[in-house]
Amino acid sequence: MYPRVVIDLNKFSQNVEKVKEQMDAYGIDIYGVTKVFRADRELSKIFADQGLSAIADSRIRNLKKIAGLPIPKVLLRLPMHSEISDVITFSDMSLCSELSTMELLSEEAVRQHKTHGVILMTDLGDLREGFFDRDELMEAVKEASRLEGIKILGIGTNLTCFGAIIPKPQHMEELLELGSIIEEEFGLSLQVISGGNSSSYYLVNDGLMPSGINNLRLGEIFVCGVETAFGRRIPGTYDDVFVLEAEIVELKKKPSKPIGESGMDAFGQKPVYEDKGQMLRAICAVGKQDVDTEGLVPMDPCVDIIGRSSDHMILNMTNCLKKYEVGDIVRFRLKYGGILSAMTSDYVDKTYINQDYESKNMRNGLRMEEGYGNY
Ligand SMILES: *Cc1c(COP(=O)(O)O)cnc(C)c1O
């Protein structure tokens, strides 16, 4: 069934292996972020097989789906007060920035006879989540460290999300300094100093990451093979783990400029089309209701996307040497938003290829042990 997304498990596994090797060399462990693919079981399993230290997702619903995978689970989005019970049941750790939330986590953890790990988020200027005020952070540590059922595992930060702020060594130094103050003032030992997401990768790659940062939470780098501070491709990784396939339902020569008085299109926009003469135009059966069409890049370089509506994409095929026909499949590489929307869509089928990949741990004969996810 089309449209469908074809997921290459071998390429994904190699992306994870490549980045992990590099992080291992710097003593940085990785939480593999599964939200973009809704904690798809096959892909999440690769994170576990490759020996990442935890799986992290923003949604408890996703973590619930992979509850059976023997790897610790981290909730990335600040817990909602209304989901505390599931947070304790289905995640081992969460990122927190509110004392009131930690109090509820504590009560529920005690009720469920568990210890829940907490990573305190600090906002270093991107202005999404995290303690911004140092005194408030210290006060929260003081209170939270007395709570039963939760354990302060460490601190973290998140950049390049809301404010698009690029992580710099100074941000990391500031995080380390906050960590030292917390350790000294409250006699805590912090196991995790989490320096961000795929936008912090370059600091490690370029030798700029201060020592002491020992964790990153990485998603996009594995699915797209790019770091996200500057959008550079990571050598030795693939950018086509996810490929969207759509079928041509009409192929005709038509003019390039619509005929008649122009008003608004289906989305209230007033498009302007240049007259480029006759064109070979293909209509693909995939549109905005199926997937975020802005996140699609044609893999055949002669194909140009010229229009999008709810159900269709219109392609210019004039420059193609290959003779496309009605019923043929056009392939698109997916950018982050494309993967996110395709994996979340009911209208896009999912298929795996190269399922017989061998992860490094399998080659070395190591097996995952059951039940090491206990804090
Ligand atoms: C999504 C998310 C990440 C992972 O970001 P990528 O850019 O995909 O690596 C890390 N931390 C938090 C808090 C997130 O929400």
Number of β-strand runs: 16
Query: What best-fitting shape do the alpha-carbon axes yield?
Result: elongated
Give the structural class.
Answer: alpha/beta
Helix amount: 25-40%
Task: Give the uncertain stretches in residue-range form.
Answer: 369-375
Quaternary form:
single chain
Largest sheet: 8 strands, mixed
**What is the number of helical segments per DSSP (H or I, 4+ residues)?**
11
Give the N-to-C terminal Cα separation: 44 Å
Instruction: Give the C-alpha Rg.
Output: 24 Å
Bound molecules: pyridoxal-5'-phosphate
The portion of residues forming beta strands comes to 15-25%
Average pLDDT for all residues: 95
Give the key terms.
375 residues; alpha/beta; eight-stranded mixed beta sheet; eight-stranded parallel beta sheet; 11 helices; 28% helix; disordered C terminus; binds pyridoxal-5'-phosphate
Layout of helices and strands:
Blueprint: E1 4-8, H1 9-25, E2 29-33, H2 41-49, E3 54-57, H3 60-65, E4 73-75, H4 84-90, E5 93-96, H5 99-111, E6 116-122, H6 134-144, E7 150-157, H7 169-186, E8 192-194, H8 201-205, E9 215-218, H9 220-224, E10 242-255, E11 278-284, E12 296-298, E13 304-308, E14 313-316, E15 329-334, H10 336-344, E16 349-353, H11 360-363
Parallel strand pairs: 1-16, 2-3, 2-9, 3-4, 4-5, 5-6, 6-7, 7-8
Antiparallel strand pairs: 1-10, 10-11, 10-15, 11-14, 12-15, 13-14
Helix pairs in contact: 1-2, 4-5
Bound molecules: pyridoxal-5'-phosphate (PLP).
